[in-house]
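chain below, 277 aa
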Amino acid sequence: MREAFGKRLADAVSTRGPLCAGVDPHPSLLRDWGLATDASGLERFALTATEAIAEHVAVLKPQSAFFEAHGAAGIAVLQRVIGLAGEAGALVLLDVKRGDIGSTMAAYASAYLGEGSPLAADAITVSPYLGFDSLEPALRQAEATGRGVFVLARTSNPEGERVQRADAGGGRTVAQSVIDAAALRNAGTAPMGHVGVVVGATNEPGQVELTRLNGPILAPGFGAQGATVRDLPLVFGDALPRVLPATSRALLRHGPDPAALRAAVLSVTDQLSQLLG
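prediction:
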């Protein structure tokens, strides 16, 4: 039985730093690398990136959609990425943003968090907008298998603002209600619980309150979307030690040279290390 996800993540971050490196095989990046935008180009891109950077980061985050776009061949590449990252000692956060109800949500949980599943990752992203309680199958599966979930709360895309900042009653926004529900699941767990949230690094300070979460915070928007290392303390305040700054394009544009990819990762890791002391 593997250790709880919160413990495994805390150990990985203490050893490698908090950077979450994305593997997003966007067609434009494949072209920038001089690769075909087909399954063979996807394979070359994804495996080169994973082999270059996975051993240097605590968390590797493949974006599932870009693999799914290539059908069965793309899913086969995704399986290899998950395996290679695990062998390199990185935790795999599979970015799938799944959200459904009942048996369908249970099927997603089995696919991505179940023991023996070929696509099982250390954690996944999920969407709460069919109701936080609709995520129960994934929350239970993750807890039972020592894995984690990251629930979309206050994301970095501007389209989400109208919904996520809407009044949920009791003086809370929808985003805050999601964070509070995650905090309830994590209460009393040390060093932190298995239910994380997604809060963009591009958000203005003070939009959400994270001190009671007792869980990890995935922070997209760091890098190519505009957020910098200096922004992180302003946005996250006392919750900063639990933040996983996530970036993909800002790293992947340094490919296809593996040495350049590694250098880019180590440069960001060093900046984060100086910030966190």
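The mean pLDDT is 97. The chain has twelve helices and ten strands.
thats it, cya
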